[in-house]
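Input for the complex:
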Amino acid sequence: MALLEIRDLHVGVEDREVIRGLDLNVDAGEVHAIMGPNGSGKSTLSHVIAGKLGYEITGGQILFRGENLLRMEPNERAAKGVFLGFQYPVEIPGVTTMNFLRAALNAQRKARDQQEFSTPEFLKRIREVAGSLNIPQDMLKRGVNVGFSGGEKKRNEILQMALFEPSLCILDEIDSGLDIDALRIVASGINALRSPERAMIVITHYRRLLDHVVPDVVHVMSRGRIMKSAGKELALELEASGYAQFEDAA
Amino acid sequence: MKQVLPKADPERSIGNVFAAARGRLPGAGLVPQIRASAFEVYERTGLPHRGMEDWKYTDLRALIGEVLPLAPRPDAEALVRAKVSAEQVSVDQAVKLVMVDGIFAPELSDLGRLENEVVVRSLREVLENSSPGDMAGLLLSTTSDSAISLNAAMATDGLVITVADGNAVKRPIQIVHVATALSVSTFTRSYLQLGKGAHAAIVESFVSAERASGYQANDAIIALVGNEASLSHIRVAAAASDAVNISSAIIAVGARAKLDLFSMTCSGSISRYQGFIKLAGEGTKVSANGVNLIRDELHADTTMVVDHAVPHCTSREKFRAVIDDCGRSVFQGRIVVRPAARKTDANLTTRALLLSDQAEADSKPELEILADDVTCGHGATSGALDNSLVFYLRARGLSEKDAKMLLIKAFVGESIEEITSENLRDFVTAQAEHWLQAGR
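Predicted:
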């Protein structure tokens, strides 16, 4: 059984069909890259998997470990191990990163009938994870993403991914707005989390990220469907030929 | 333009209410005369109504119609109920002074724990025993607000707190106003004088005891903050849900002083908090903040007038409102910069968070700038919770309720965090969380 199984998914936004019969299987241990032009439905797909409101599922299903993901609340999905790294992480003034992380981690643990972390346990855990990602402690004391640079926001997403230890990570354009150095830090954070139990879906426009996070499978998405799937060499091919051929085909 | 409005009928009985109360109102010498003239001032306009610009959103004439008879002196049974309620809002370390139905209750107060640096007397005692000159000052008003005039006419008791030059009072002084009665009115008036370089923190809590209902409380606090002095004044009002609370603060601040003001209203059918702050000495800093937490069909109005009379002062105001159900929150903030007040730095922001489609927020920030070379600004926003923030938190594992709760707490916290004392900040935060939990 695949970790994630998407069958003939159809999704509408305000009377427009943006995902039009999408199939995707992702097994534990695999890294899948989804590439495609703007408006191809990549971000919509990531939002629908995470459970964002405002999308109408008009057909098909999404199974996570065989369970119907579409019937779960976003927080239930998180507790089951689904993680979405946001393209645009929001700023939450007045809620410190530390308090937010602790509340989120303990909410997930509670939902899984695990004991909540005590303050010292949590502090120990957060220090380890933040240290491995080069995130200074004072960043954790600030409001969530408030005044963070683009690179810091993305690093904060990876920090959360490392802390929550999800089994499915969807990274929506985690490379956007990053300079070379920030990209390298984020990529090494992602690579450190690759494991046989964990799957990743990396959504990106550019090959650049995939030089650092080498995928097992590359999919080309266009007009709401997956048009082609192949090995990592497809990313190179796309860079040379562009997406136009797939847009015409769709 | 002078507005002439017909008086509401039931209000005509106010003359009877005053006449009936007169024998019970403390004060020797000139005091009865001062009360009578304050009452005349009140009678000219009657209850504040929407024809008065400062009261346009809170039309007491329409909302409450009449002033109820003065509360009787609390009996032993009422004091027992009052004690229970007063204890529920205790501030850590504070010296508690309890007023029950408008009368100071020394038996429920911690007079023995008062520090030597502060002198506390009841208004009744002062009005009955002081020299005529002193007494006159206590009931005279610097504003023409009719609710304050009525307060001067009818005040039954209050506290007169004095901190001499250079004295610092370490423990907060908490005045707890407890209502125990049904369908009555109470009038309290307190004075606070901080000498040069003195420090004090005053907390005022308004609560209702079990079975108290339908009452009207009218409180005024008049404070004089000396040069280089520092005052924190925190007010938390949680009147019964069918009661009326009108609180006025009239504060004059000297030079190079510091005023840290905070008001939170979290219950009461009709609440009005009005602060009149005058910066009367140069180099002074005022931080005046507040929160209205409103649900059901309650109405809370916070009106602040910050008056810069001299140069080189700074004022900051941060007001937040959370409104659910059919609640209505009003914020009016006027900043006056007088011709002499060059180099004034004044700013106010007001934000309202609407949790339901029926919730209403009225905001009226106003700048009245009569001086050159000043930095003044204001901002007002209102809106619902940002769904993208709620989703972000839910995608990280928080339930919808917990996510919203965290965001509301953070929103309210923007104002509460301005309270400089950690102890008082924690007290206010706990009261705000109590309100949030009650709505779940």
